[in-house]
Structures are given as structure tokens and as C-alpha cells.
Design goal:
The protein is mainly alpha-helical. The protein contains 6 helices and 4 strands, in the order H-E-E-H-H-H-E-E-H-H. The chain has helices at about 5, 25-40, 40-45, 50-65, 85-115, 115-125; strands at about 15-20, 20-25, 70-75, 80-85. Strand 1 and strand 2 (about 20-25) form a beta hairpin. It is elongated and about 70 Å long. This is LysR family transcriptional regulator. Keywords: Coiled coil. GO terms for molecular function: DNA-binding transcription factor activity.
Amino acid sequence: MNRDQDKRLRCKVTVRMMTDEKAFGPGVAELLSGVRRTGSLQGAAQAMHMSYSKAWTVVRAAEEIWGFPLTERQAGGSHGGHSRLTKAAEILLQRYEKLEEKVNETARQEFERSFNPGEITRLKELGHETT
């Protein structure tokens, strides 16, 4: 990516579902996606450069808020343990990803309408005027 692309304005929206505390957002979604991809919470945590204990705390806090388990865990043994998402967690993650996609598309459209190159030029021209 060249320097001009780095300096181009863009809109970034983060979707977080809340109670009086965070219930689900990009961090939990990334962690659950990692469990789906790697088959373990440990693997998901490593991929995010997060300690296993932190990942475990995040999952437990989300499970407490939602009121259902997000992962099914199988203890180690000679072949090592594994984790997988519960059916409810799969649905939650899919719905979150769909919501995030729609929110970002709407935000992108509104941003393009309000901050397109022509509008930026007009704002620059107005920037030298006083009220």
C-alpha cells in the first residue's frame, strides 16, 4: 500500500453488543472464530497473541452474560484436548458477523455520501472562511 492510500479517509465502525458491560464484540468474535478454525481455545488464544487464561476469562464472561455455553471442551489426555463451538455459539457468531457486515455497509455508504472527494474539496474551501 502506498502512502497516498494510507492517508485516504475511510470509515471504521465497531459493533459491540452490550448490557451494562460488553456482551459480544470483535474480540469475542475473533476468539470464537479461532476456536472454530484451530479446534482449541489455546490455539485461538495463541493466534491472537493472548494468554490462555485471558481467553478463558473472556469466554467465561461471555457465557455468563449470554446464559449458555459457547464452547464444548474435551480435556487433554494422550492426544491433547480440543474445543468446538456449541450450536448456539455458531448461530450467535454468524448473526454477529451478518450484523457487522450490514452496519459497515451502511456506514460506508453514508461516509461516501458525506465525505466523498467533492465534499472534502468543499470543506477545504470553507476551511479558510470564518462565520
